[in-house]
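Chapter summary example.
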Amino acid sequence: MKKLESYHDEIKHCIRCGACQAVCPVFEVMEREMAVARGRLRLIREALEGKLDLTDKMRDYIDLCVGCRLCVDNCPAKVNTDQIVISARHKFVDVKGLPFLHRIMLEQILSKKGNFNMALKSLGLARGTRLNKLLPEQLKKKEEILPTIPQRTFVDKMKEMTLDTGAPKKVGFFLSCMDNFMFPEVVEAAIKVLQKNDWDVVIPTDVNCCGAPHHVYGDWETAAKLAKKNIEAFQDAEVDYIITDCATCGSVLKEYGEMLSGDAMEQKGKEFAAKIMDINAFLIDVVKMKPGQNKVSQTVTYHDPCHLVRHQMVSEQPREILQAVDGLEFRECSDADRCCGGAGTYNINHYDVSMKILDKKIENVKDTTADILATSCPACRIQLSYGMRRAGLNDMVVHPVELLARSYED
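The structure predicted for these 410 residues follows.
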């Protein structure tokens, strides 16, 4: 990955035109210069030129970025603000270390599946005994963002499944943390759809977190270690494609070659990254999937995850899947590709800003009057489900493959 200093010349390309103000979801709700790309770039430039120190206040402004890339798409000079922000966070980590809470979350929970599982089960226990109701009001609101924790993980359920059906083709599947621990039904639906289209699925269970949280928060060392472990997990899979139903995972898995630049595993990282494909794109562009005959008589709209529509350029394929299901009426949502404000743990770290962004998204969803809201990222799903509950709406948020899987039901 490029160090912050290497972006100095690119930062100078910012002509301070203000085009980023027109699209930035954070600026829209905060209306402050430091909450938009132009302002952040100026802060970073001043720091690089020795005119400002790397203070905690500056880090706070840098961390207000949701990483949606709308500013990059709208920038006449094409300044890669999202990558510069990530590099700036790494600079902070390099100079000052990770903030305490970030270190606990990144190094002790997200990097260790057992600890992550234990943390979620503890949350489920606290909810079951209503101990969560004793939390301070602000903390209680943040806890309520998370969905109901399933009793069994996907890995638990996988022991009862037949993945090798003798199909003529096979594909690797990267099991995300969120799907394993929170949305196992999405993986089950994906397997069903793929098998119905004559593809067997290879799912290594020794994969780790994709490293996206570590990467975006500047902990590149841990992100690289996780990347190496995940590459090794697939080394005997013998597949040409590795798919994921998580937009965030897909976006960072595609960067493994760059994340391991200069490392002995750089070439393996590039080869691994070249195999990564979003499941929506895979089903439409490679599988040429055929939906089942079962009718799904409902209406649906779709939210584009930032890590899919702008990081991976996948937009039409999820809609093609939804429109292919018999009986399912698709209704386009206004500003469907606008950030929902989830952005991983942004809704925890910046709750008030996140909720203001979310409220605008939910209003647009509400205007469609659709029965179902589909999206292709578990982080977006969590955020959108919470938004639906807050607005008193039907909390029916699913992945497109779940609706496609319903078309194969008897």
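To summarize the output: The first helix runs from residue 8 to 12.
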